[in-house]
Amino acid sequence: MPRNTLVTIGDLVLDVLLEARLPVGVGEHQTARSLRFEAGGACTTILAARRMGLDVAALGAVGDDVAGRFLFELLAEAGVDTAALQMPADSTTTTVICMSDRQAGEHVFLGCYGQGGTINFSDAAAQRLSAAAAVFIPGYALLEERLAGLVAGAFAWLAGESRRVYFDVGPFQGGLKRERVAETLRLVDVLLLTDDEIAFVADDLGDLQRRYPQLTIVLKLGERGCRIISDEVDLPVAGFPVEVIDTIGAGDAFAAAFIWADLRGYSLVDCGTIANAMGAASVGRTGAGRNVPARADIQSLLDAHGKGIDLSC
Question: Given the DSSP bridges, would you call strands 106-112 and 95-101 parallel, antiparallel or unpaired?
Fold first, then answer.
């Protein structure tokens, strides 16, 4: 089985990045300091995975609009396999307005899921999964209504096959019923989430471990790094002290680096260290998407902190 191909499911987002002064009050008028359009959501994970050296195939949908064509062309230019990516006629692209205040270190997200067209599980999607070493499922993919057929088909396929599955919970999973959460987590090998997101999938961390003993849990702790927990280990992995410019997309890039390292056979501690380095390098830049760090950037950060990890394998 190839060890270099990652398939992602859904969450293909256009980010509209506004640098503003927060909070924005009702009736207030201000001029944004900057405005940029960037790939967001799983697109950031995809681009980070590409820059780490993984082959990536994207399943899901973008809209038949300016935003959708922008994302489609951007992914294709990055060498992403877009053959199973659908663009239904007259549909719209999932879009998020990201207002960030660098001075305050705060941000606000306002999102709208794409509309139009039902995205079903296709032969092309099955072919990409068949060639994959791993599958990444962002939690947002479970909430986008038009992706329900794709997600159901992919889950049915994964239930009968052996693939390494990574699931990133995300901040909106409280809208899912526990039965849906259980259906998802039974397929998952590596669960990525923050402290705040534990409540979306279990009563507490102990309950999560008891219910799903097969999981390797990667608890993202921001500047403090991460904590990796399984039935055999409980490993704190320190973060990297860096100047924070923008945290948007850092978690998405973190996931890509962890997946890359895990598929390459690094130890869990090294996987966490590499992912922490990606997250740290990401927050030192504005936005994510096309600005996501490359493997060389991660190597430089690891070397500067004397970690002794070689990413050339």
Answer: antiparallel
